[in-house]
Backbone:
């Protein structure tokens, strides 16, 4: 079978228009341009519904899937060949006709504390105002520090940092990957270990989504796939899907390669932090999805379904 040619092909990548999304998509564009200098690449910026409804929590407006819906519509309508997403924003099921054949190498996976006054989670005084809209973070933070005051905070990274700087919060909890990709590492006060706060499913990884059967696009993007990251994220997503498939729930998961095997940790917590369920297993890399289902099963045996029922 003859490999499709990319010469003189117009290649359109769709993306959200937030600074972080644009920075991530520019990175993908530059990598593809290095691989295929003969390819003409353009960006199609889209403002999603989630970007417009910043005063409402994601759980109220339909979850993180609202970050990707308009981008997927552009793919299905043929207005773009590729969409670049933060993997943690992707729903567990893709629309018919779309898929994610490529996951790029993962950036730093941990969450971080950002504060202008305090050096660590432990250093925060009782009653300190901490900004985060993530139920996953809220659950684990309340288990660690029930004396903190957690307040909802949405918006892009720069908007959140501006609210911290104007005194609305004493500290923020953010993903390290976003700050690093924006060149804002200097704002990181301290890293939070995964033993303290387990990351979101797919955190730190970029998803490249395209139409199924689009052989040209799959050929163009294939070199950007990172096999280890793909296996780890597949295990994490299988866990989340087995637990009900939602993104905007207090579920966390992190897989890594240890001595050639996949090691997966999973967590489900009540939002008040009073119940934290955890499970962990290892398996061969080729068993990524089965491993995710098994760890989810362990959590369900502990009663995770009772915690998650109120969200579904």
Residues:
């Amino acid at each position: 079978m003859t490999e499709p040619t990319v010469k003189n092909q117009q290649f359109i990548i769709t993306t959200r228009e937030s600074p972080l999304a644009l920075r991530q998509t520019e990175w993908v564009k530059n990598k593809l341009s290095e691989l295929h200098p003969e390819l003409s690449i353009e960006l199609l910026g889209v403002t999603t519904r989630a970007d417009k409804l910043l005063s409402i929590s994601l759980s109220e407006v339909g979850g993180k899937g609202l970050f990707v819906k308009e981008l997927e519509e552009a793919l299905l309508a043929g207005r773009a060949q590729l969409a670049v997403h933060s993997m943690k924003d992707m729903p567990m099921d893709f629309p018919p006709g779309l898929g994610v054949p490529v996951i790029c190498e993962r950036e730093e996976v941990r969450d971080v504390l950002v504060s202008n006054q305090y050096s660590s989670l432990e250093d925060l005084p009782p009653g300190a105002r901490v900004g985060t809209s993530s139920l996953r973070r809220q659950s684990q933070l309340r288990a660690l520090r029930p004396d903190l005051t957690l307040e909802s905070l949405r918006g892009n990274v720069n908007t959140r940092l501006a609210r911290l700087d104007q005194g609305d919060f004493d500290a923020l909890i953010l993903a390290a990957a976003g700050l690093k990709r924006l060149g804002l590492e200097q704002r990181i006060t301290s890293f939070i270990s995964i033993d303290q706060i387990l990351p979101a499913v797919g955190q730190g990884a970029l998803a490249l989504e395209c139409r199924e059967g689009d052989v040209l696009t799959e050929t163009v993007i294939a070199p950007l796939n990172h096999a280890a990251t793909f296996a780890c994220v597949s295990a994490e997503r299988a866990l989340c899907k087995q637990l009900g498939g939602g993104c905007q729930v207090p579920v966390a998961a992190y897989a890594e390669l240890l001595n050639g095997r996949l090691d997966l940790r999973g967590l489900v917590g009540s939002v008040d932090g009073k119940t934290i369920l955890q499970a962990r297993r290892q398996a061969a890399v080729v068993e990524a999805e089965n491993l995710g289902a098994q760890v989810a099963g362990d959590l369900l045996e502990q009663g995770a379904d009772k915690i998650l029922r109120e969200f579904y």
Observations:
- Residues 19-35 form the longest helix (17 residues).
- The chain is about 30% helix and 25% strand.
- The chain has three domains: 10-104+205-225, 111-191, 236-308.
- The CA atoms of residues 138 and 271 lie 6 Å apart.
